[in-house]
Amino acid sequence: MNWWQESVVYQIYPRSFKDSNQDGIGDLQGIISKLDYLSYLGIDVIWLCPVYESPNEDNGYDISDYFSIMRDFGSMSDMEELIQKSKKHGISIVMDIVANHTSSEHRWFKEAQKSVDNPYRQYYVFKPNTGKIPSDLKSIFLGSAWSLDEQTNSYYLHLFAKSQPDLNWHYKPVRDELYQMINWWLDKGIQGFRFDVIDLVAKDLDQNKISDGPKLHDYIQELNLNCFKKHSILTVGETWGATTEKAKRYSNLDGSEFSMIFNFSHILLDQEPGKEKWDTVELDLVKLKKVFNDQQVDLYQKGWNSLFWNNHDLPRIVSRWGNDQEYREQSAKMLGTLLHFMQGTPYIYQGEELGMTNVKFESFSDYRDIETQNMIRDRRKKGLTDDQIMASIQKIGRDNARTPFPWNKSDFGGFSEVQPWINMNPNYSLINAQEQLGRVDSVLEYYRKLIWFRRVSNLKDIIRDGQFELMYSDHKDLFAYKRILGSMELKVYCNFHSHSIHLNEDVQTMKLILSNYDEIDSNHGLNLRPYEAIVLEGKGNDL
Ligand code: NOJ
Q1: What DSSP designation does 3 have?
Q2: pLDDT bucket at 543, cuts 50 / 70 / 90
Q3: Catalytic residue among 19, 57, 149, 238
Q4: Active-site residue, 238 included
């Protein structure tokens, strides 16, 4: 068993976590000041979104120097302090490696722009200007994926913003530079990495293959040999194109690739196939069950799952698939229960443990995200109304996840003493950590329990190793499953709706492990109230 199979990861978006120097931007000292909070929650690992030097066009996902810390966030000695102090709290640090592209401010790109025969030219993907754009390839942030470099009259490739030129992984010196950089961070005491859009790095333009290029797994294995082999670290690849079948290969138990990947097949279920991410459809629970069932069953003893609902690119799950009004607390707890009793390594995104919700800013200018701003321009051009555009942003835009962490109900939520770089979610006076700490029925205290069950309790083996079996696969409102290990069995029931569900189940012989209501209603069967979640334990075959 690897340590990361028994861990719970907490994702921090440093810009929005805690501001220590009152400039309105979260920073490393801010994180250090909240390590006690994270220990109290019980997590083992922090995944730190990028903290490297960056012009911040894409909030750090545009790195201009992999070896220094962004000034807004502090200094290298703050980073070293964070690593050491986290360690004292029993917390490991996982860094975010953005290696599909750099910032256009990176020294390599600046060199590459100097002339066509500059040694750094091959670090990127340039095509001579023959009078027309090299191809129709579109950037993920909209518009063409090619921009003209006027100095050398050539086009360069950027799958994201113009200021994020793609690196050329087919050129070995690029890979070697990246391995060196990763090893340098390992020497600093980093215990793992999240690899940004890793399935794009081996793109093969000649074969029109952007995701999953033919050499992708060769490169990952090479990366593994050069950087991971000597260490016991957590590695997780961000792979939007992955299926459960592909996840098996990436997280193969022979340890030749990653510990696990982020498989988005569940999270993509409310997006209209073939359309842009802004075009959403209602979630079909039966499909969600099928996708989770495949992930759980197919990877069992063959690979390893990551378990997540949220991250800095996704809307808040309680607003997305729960109920962020009347049943906010119940549904936040229900969604947490559903995930945390499955097999895999859970990832909690900052504020998820408070049941934080999406935000509805009044004007487009309140939004900071480059993807959102590009989309506003693009959709206005396409003739959509501002109301239509705003509705999509409020539903699926990335800034939903990026409002500052509400520590308490004072001005600016205790995040900062000054106006933050992005507005607070106006509901921070109701939803904040101080209000929830120690309140026994809060979402925060419930998340502590979820973490405790898989980290400490005597159920931890079944949660980690038990087989998964879906129940009621066709039920439209209920997500229920079993976990089975030897003669032990857990049953998890989650009501996904605001109406009650009656089940003809005799659960009298089972032991109640957890519920998001004060007590369960098991008279004449099992009655699940709105968004109710119940976990029961029993002896498998004698039920
Ligand atoms: C995925 C990251 O999670 C996202 O925030 C970023 O904009 C893109 N990759 C580009 O690096």
Answers
A1: G
A2: very low
A3: 238
A4: yes
